[in-house]
Amino acid sequence: MADKRTLIAVIGDEDTTTGLLLAGIGQVSPSTNDKNFLVYQENKTSVEELEEKFDDFTIRRNDIAILLINQHIADMIRLKIDNFENPFPAILEIPSKDHPYDPSKDSVLKKVRKLFGEA
User: Gene3D superfamilies recorded for this chain (predicted)?
Assistant: First the structure.
């Protein structure tokens, strides 16, 4: 199952996505023109678009190993993220320049706390 999963995907604000693309994670499929990133733009990107791209990266595509998502964007689709239970892709919530990281909201940490009976 993990053999084909070689890509990192990102759903992030412009600064985060640009930085990660400059670091080399960007990939555009030559046959389908599918990208492994989504640039979130406040007042332009709808929650429906975020949910659609999340489903694309987590359900439809089998080449994504890790999904990085800014935590403030993850909050917009929190129910989807909290209900995602597959081992791949791993979903990691990351801070952005304008929004600090809050460990109490992180879905991975919530699952770990629940596992250890701390929730």
Answer: ATPase, V1 complex, subunit F
